[in-house]
Here is the input.
Amino acid sequence: MAYVVTESCIKCKYTDCVDVCPVDCFHEGPNFLVIDPEECIDCTLCVAECPVEAIYSEDDVPDEQQQFIELNAELAKSWESIVEKKDALADADDWADADAGSKFELLER
Here is the structure.
């Protein structure tokens, strides 16, 4: 069971989670992060670090966010690994409280 980054991360891309990951399983896209399920060791350290609460255990991903399980696995194969914290996107704070279901279409691949 791996951990999954969900919709709340889109357009925010805070990278606090990256700093605590002991196995560097995060991958970075233009406006979103994903976790490679093959690399994740289920340590849970990233969950508490995410300021927008976007990271869930695969078993606990909300029903309306289930597509992110496969999306993390798919995008991790093509996106570069990220191993150090970076600045969040410039308008991240504006998007941090966006309603669930409102950001998926904004995901840049």
